[in-house]
Amino acid sequence: MLEYIPNAHSQSDVLVYLPKSNVIHMGDILFNERYPYIDVNAGGGINGMIEGVQRGIALADEQTKIIAGHGKTTNQAGLKEYLNMLVSVRDAVQKQKAQGKTLAQIQASKPIAQWDSVYTNQLISPERFVESVFNSLPSAQK
Fold first, then answer.
1. Distance between CA atoms of 107 and 69, rounded to whole angstroms?
2. pTM to 2 decimals?
3. Percent helix, strand and coil across the chain, each rounded to 5?
């Protein structure tokens, strides 16, 4: 089964589920043990990433093999940990953005430092991930 996941890594992500083999390929929705690349200019966004991971969790069971677009193969528990990180980062950035803080102010506050030891990688630094999340969230209301 192929399932279109809109506005996750980009506007054209697809999750592949093979129920007989109990395998899910998450594509670029899952950067396992790495901060993900969200291509905001191509329609990607943190909320779409979260929705895609939630869909993968819903399809999986404890024995499902989950293949990442980047990083190691994982399982449902690993996907839940990744979801927890995504939601926590989104909420931390969204809270400060709603308060009217600039991107630079939010980055300087290091709102995702608790995740850096696991998720920082050569491609996406914490600052770059915060920028992607910030840019994919609606602007603060005035």
1. 26
2. 0.93
3. 45, 15, 40
Stretch 35-64: mean pLDDT: 96
In Å, how far are 40, 46, 122, 127, 130 from 106, measured between CA atoms?
18, 16, 21, 9, 8
Cα separation, 20 vs 78, in Å, equals: 21
Kindly state the tokens that stand for 101: 């803080």
Distance, CA of 138 to CA of 105 (rounded, Å): 17
Cα 64 from chain centre? 20
pLDDT tens track for 5-46: 999 999 989 999 999 999 999 999 999 999 999 999 999 999
CA distance 77 to 53: 12
